[in-house]
Design a protein that fits this description.
Elements (H helix, E strand, L loop, with lengths): L5 E6 L23 E3 L2 E7 L2 E2 L1 E4 L5 E4 L6 E2 L2 E3 L4 E8 L6 E11 L2 E6 L4 E4 L2 E4 L5 E6 L15 E4 L2 E3 L7 E4 L8 E5 L10 E9 L8 E12 L3 E4 L2 H9 L10 E5 L7 H7 L5 E4 L7 E2 L5 E2 L4 E2 L3 E5 L6 E2 L12 E3 L6 E2 L12 E3 L6 E2 L12 E3 L6 E2 L12 E3 L6 E2 L12 E4 L5 E2 L11 E4 L6 E4 L2 E4 L4 E4 L8 E3 L6 E2 L12 E3 L6 E2 L12 E3 L6 E2 L12 E3 L6 E2 L12 E4 L5 E2 L12 E4 L21 H5 L10 E4 L11 E2 L2
Parallel strand pairs: 16-20, 21-22, 22-23, 23-27, 24-28, 27-29, 28-30, 29-31, 31-33, 32-34, 33-35, 34-36, 36-38, 37-39, 42-44, 43-45, 44-46, 46-48, 47-49, 49-51, 50-52, 51-53
Antiparallel strand pairs: 1-9, 2-8, 3-4, 3-7, 3-14, 5-6, 6-13, 9-10, 10-11, 11-14, 12-13, 15-17, 18-19, 19-20, 25-26, 40-41, 41-42, 53-54, 54-55
């Protein structure tokens, strides 16, 4: 049997809309009449395969192999129902015929069904005189009246990473059955091949051919030309081999490596196996999209890649995982490209030699602990894209001297800049709506300034308040004044408000204040006396803890509860009077008050309200036992004394 390819010419109406595969779908009712251009080449398809139709002596049409079956020009109307297919033998024209198909449409998909039940498509075999079956037509390639336009996906591109001294053209090769038109390559718009180190945007034009249109300005990527001291490496395995064959070096003289890979999941093991072999790692030629969690950090041994001195992150990267560079303590500089949209928690924590960080404009949130404990970091430029600075994001960046918070930031997290001992001033923009607890504690700030347009916060003389100046939020620790008078508008002294303000010796609390927050005056070591007015009804935990020079305290008789650790470690406090309003005293309220030898109870306190914690007692010695000696339920009012220094074994006596 002689094989003959049949050229099927589709006449009258169209077979294909927009070159899509035709699937069996019912017509959509109510469609407006639309004409579709169907110019192109088409192939009958069965079970997803393309077929060459062969006429056999027993008048069967057999689908065998692959092949193109003719062309069609014209249009098909969405309101049309029938299409006549005329077919002839491409070889000698001896085989010919016409079949009428019913056309059904759903969106851009067409189904053709033999109308007169004369052809069946079954098991890749077409016969005459059997029941009607659906036929699918697929557009395949370029007809005489249509040409495709080449795209970047049609070509294989290579040679994008090279070293100075031997730069050759980027290679651009067409894939099978794609345009072989002449290719002209441009480097930053010039056809001259560059020779100097740097990055060059590569584009190319493809000339038209018989079956293909021309294409102009296709993007081939970026040519990276490295200086001669770089080693271009294309796999983690090759990196391991390279380092194994190198001698030890120092952080100041690293090996320069351009690593072009798709995955860096095993890089930590490779680097940690090459001890004392420091590297400058350039990933700009890699196609990775993420730097995984703990990529350069071993969470089991709690060690980072100590040999990594600097890294350039590829523009293909969109995310940096949690703890990615944790404890890379020789990492000195990082540039985060604009492509990165998220940085994980603690990504750069404990990078103790990190001095410079550039954050790209794709970042909207600086996550929890991201740059915490980067003790060598001196300056950070936060881009305008950032809206949130997370909890302890820059905590303990002890060398950080300045920070500019852009007007895009709305949220500053708890302890965000705590322990930044070199930070002396900061300005809050008008965009900020939330400032977390202790955001600026343990710094040397002398002033916290707030943009006057801010609707939530205000400042006066460098002190941070809420907008209406009813809450004192933070008194800068670096202020040198020895006394401070709290404004009469204040009703609440916030948590940590005067935290470690060691220059203050005297503070005046007005009668407007009703609450004092947790740790409000914690470690104000030079504060000598405090009068808590009767307006105050609540004092927080550890409010005056470690005020080591506090000698006297007058407690408001509006207070009902002295909470945990309120006056703990006030080692110069010699006497205290517990007013008759007090009904409960928490753990370690006066713990380690070693000079406290005189305590007066104005009234009894129920045993259920007087902490019995023996590890952290309210008072040291047997004062609690003596207080309940004559009344085990409520205790006995009066004055109790002992001798200094007070300790766990001190004996208290009730005065007559």
């Amino acid at each position: 049997m002689k094989d003959r390819k049949l050229c099927i010419t589709i006449s009258i109406l169209a077979i294909c809309a927009f070159g899509l595969v035709f699937m069996g779908c019912p017509p959509e009712e109510g469609d407006e009449t639309t004409n579709y251009d169907m110019t192109g080449t088409y192939t009958f398809v069965k079970s997803g395969g393309n077929c060459t139709w062969i006429f056999t002596t027993d008048k069967k049409y057999e689908c065998s192999g692959y092949g193109i079956i003719g062309t069609k020009t014209g249009t098909w109307s969405s309101k049309g129902n029938d299409v006549t297919i005329s077919y002839t033998s491409a070889a000698d024209g001896s085989i010919s015929g016409n079949e009428v198909f019913t056309v059904q449409k759903n969106g851009n998909q067409l189904t053709l069904t033999i109308k007169d039940n004369s052809i069946q498509l079954s098991n890749l075999l077409v016969t005459f005189g059997l029941a009607a079956r659906s036929v699918t037509l697929t557009k395949t390639g370029n007809g005489n009246n249509e040409k495709s336009t080449p795209t970047v996906a049609d070509f294989t591109i290579g040679n994008l990473s090279q070293k100075m001294g031997g730069v050759t053209a980027v290679t651009i090769t067409p894939k099978d059955n794609k345009s072989n038109g002449t290719i002209t390559i441009y480097y930053d718009g010039s056809s001259t091949i560059p020779t100097q180190s740097g990055t060059y945007i590569v584009t190319f034009d493809v000339a038209a051919t018989t079956n293909w249109k021309a294409a102009i300005g296709l993007s081939a990527g970026t040519l990276r030309i490295y200086t001669s001291n770089y080693e271009i490496i294309n796999s983690i395995t090759d990196l391991a081999t390279f380092l194994a064959n190198k001698s030890t070096n120092t952080a100041s003289s690293p090996y320069y490596i351009a690593l072009n890979v798709k995955d860096i999941s095993n890089i930590r093991t490779t680097l940690n196996s090459a001890s004392n072999k420091y590297i400058f790692l350039d990933l700009s030629g890699s196609t990775i999209t993420t730097i995984p969690n703990s990529a350069f950090y071993n969470s089991y041994s709690l060690t980072g890649c100590t040999t990594l001195t600097e890294i350039t992150i590829s523009d293909s990267v969109t995310s940096i995982g949690n703890l990615a560079f944790c404890s890379c303590d020789n990492l000195a500089s990082v540039t985060i490209p604009n492509s990165v949209t998220s940085i994980g928690d603690y990504a750069f924590t404990y990078c103790t030699n990190l001095t410079s960080i550039t954050i790209g404009s794709g970042i909207t949130s600086i996550a929890e602990g991201t740059f915490s404990n980067c003790i060598s970091l001196t300056d950070v430029n936060i881009p305008n894209s950032v809206t949130s600075i997370g909890d302890i994001a820059f905590s303990n960046c002890t060398s950080l001297t300045s920070i500019t918070i852009p007007n895009s930031v709305t949220n500053i997290g708890d302890c965000a800049f705590s322990l930044c001992g070199s930070l002396t001033s900061i300005t809050i923009p008008d965009s900020v709506t939330i400032i977390g607890d202790s955001a600026f504690s343990d710094t040397n700030l002398t002033e916290i300034n707030v943009n006057t347009s801010n609707n939530n916060y205000s400042s006066e003389n460098g002190v941070l308040y809420n907008k209406n100046k009813t809450i004192l939020i933070a008194y800068p620790m670096g202020k040198t004044a020895s006394f401070f008078i709290i404004p009469d508008s204040i009703t609440s002294i916030g948590d940590n408000a005067f935290y470690k303000c060691t220059n203050l010796t005297s503070i005046t609390i007005p009668n407007s204040v009703t609450s004092i927050g947790d740790y409000a005056f914690y470690k104000c070591t030079n504060l000598t006396s405090i009068i808590i007015p009767n307006s105050v009804t609540s004092i927080g935990d550890y409010a005056f803890s470690i005020c080591t020079n506090l000698a006297s305290v007058i407690i408001s008789n509006s207070i009902t509860n002295i909470r945990r650790g309120t006056f703990s470690y006030c080692r110069n406090l010699t006497s205290v009077t517990i007013p008759d309003s007090i009904t409960s005293i928490g753990d370690e309220t006066f713990y380690e008050c070693t000079s406290l030898t005189n305590v007066t109870f104005r009234s009894s306190i129920p045993s259920s309200g007087f902490s019995g914690n023996t590890n952290y007692p309210v008072f040291q010695g047997d004062l609690r036992n003596k207080f309940y000696a004559s009344n085990s339920t409520s205790g006995t009012p009066g004055t109790y004394t002992t001798t200094a220094p007070v300790n766990d074994y001190s004996v208290w006596n009730k005065e007559p």
